[in-house]
Amino acid sequence: MTDILKEMYEGTMAGNAPRVLELTNLGLAEGMTPETLLFEALIPALEEVGARFERGDYFVPEMLIAGRAMNGALDVLRPLLADTGAETIGTFVMGTVKGDVHDIGKNLVNIMLEGAGFNVIDLGVQVSPEKFVAAVQEHKPDIVGMSAFLTTTMPMFKVNMEELTKAGLRDDVIVMVGGAPVTQEYADVVGADGYAADASTAVRMAKSLIAAKRGK
Ligand code: B1M
């Protein structure tokens, strides 16, 4: 690991947002790719933060400031990751489910989808079933994506899908789910059309689900 990546990893874990921002710009100026900064420093740092939280070495404030540091870096990386000049291939409505405020993973999926040519409508966090339904009615997306990062909020997938069914929309839209505790088995149980464990797989999955629906 280079000095910049090492300092970025440590700075993110310590929640030092101004330094992480500086190092992001420095890394880019030195020719590092956004993907290197993301996959070799920022994401591993948050994984370690989660592990420390689980062990009782970190508490919510530490998770919060680490998340802020990551989000600050993502603001800089977003245009670089998303600017591929790809043609629009579909519309994707995305949100973190009700009761859940985690948004970094969702934001990362959005960035990658935009980079692949999706028109992404981000509903934010704590999205109620009614809001998902209203967004599907309004934007008529190819896919509605739901993220959940807590075992306690994962059941909202099923609630959201029941609401889509009640509104007569379930057959019109592909439903994708994801988030740290979600598995393929859970996605199958709730009746989602697709699941992905990370942002790049989410893009591949979204493309293939759309191609299958359009009969290509
Ligand atoms: Co919280 N948190 N948190 N947290 N947090 C986790 C998720 C946790 C795993 C930590 C741990 O115990 N190890 C744990 C959940 C345990 C569980 O339920 N199994 C947890 C907990 C318990 C909590 C609180 C309950 C703590 C408390 O208050 N006692 C609380 C809940 C608040 C709430 O939501 N109601 C809470 C709060 C917070 C903060 C607000 C402080 C902060 C969030 C900041 C923010 O998001 N703006 C926070 C953070 C930072 C974390 C960890 C450390 C990091 C999450 C993250 O951003 N990861 C996290 C530990 C961990 O995940 N290891 C943890 C990086 C991100 C790039 O990965 O989110 O997995 P990830 O996203 C991936 C994939 O999941 C996938 O692609 C993404 C990119 O590759 N993906 C999709 C995501 N959405 C997808 C959708 C798709 C497809 C793929 O299709 C639609």
Write out key terms for the chains shown.
alpha/beta; Rossmann fold; 2 domains; five-stranded parallel β-sheet; 5 strands; globular; binds CO-5-methoxybenzimidazolylcobamide
- How far is the first residue's CA from the last residue's CA? 43 Å
Shape: globular
CATH fold node name of the largest domain: Rossmann fold
Architecture of the largest domain, CATH level 2?
3-Layer(aba) Sandwich
Low-confidence blocks of residues? none
Number of domains: 2
Strand portion, in percent?
A: 5-15%
Question: How many individual helices?
Answer: 9
Estimated structural class: alpha/beta
Going across the major beta sheet, what is the strand order?
2-1-3-4-5
Could you outline the blueprint of secondary structure elements for this entry?
Blueprint: H1 3-13, H2 17-29, H3 34-55, H4 60-82, E1 90-96, H5 104-115, E2 118-122, H6 129-139, E3 143-147, H7 156-166, E4 174-178, H8 184-190, E5 194-195, H9 199-213
Parallel strand pairs: 1-2, 1-3, 3-4, 4-5
The chain binds CO-5-methoxybenzimidazolylcobamide.
Overall description:
This protein has nine helices and five strands. It has two domains: 2-83, Methyltransferase, Methionine Synthase (B12-binding Domains), Chain A, domain 1 (Orthogonal Bundle); 91-213, 3-Layer(aba) Sandwich (Rossmann fold), CATH 3.40.50.280. With 216 residues, it is of the alpha/beta class. The radius of gyration is 18 Å and the shape is globular. A five-stranded parallel β-sheet has the order 2-1-3-4-5, sandwiched between helices. The protein binds CO-5-methoxybenzimidazolylcobamide (B1M). The site of CO-5-methoxybenzimidazolylcobamide has 39 residues, from helix 3, helix 4, helix 5, strand 3 and strand 4.
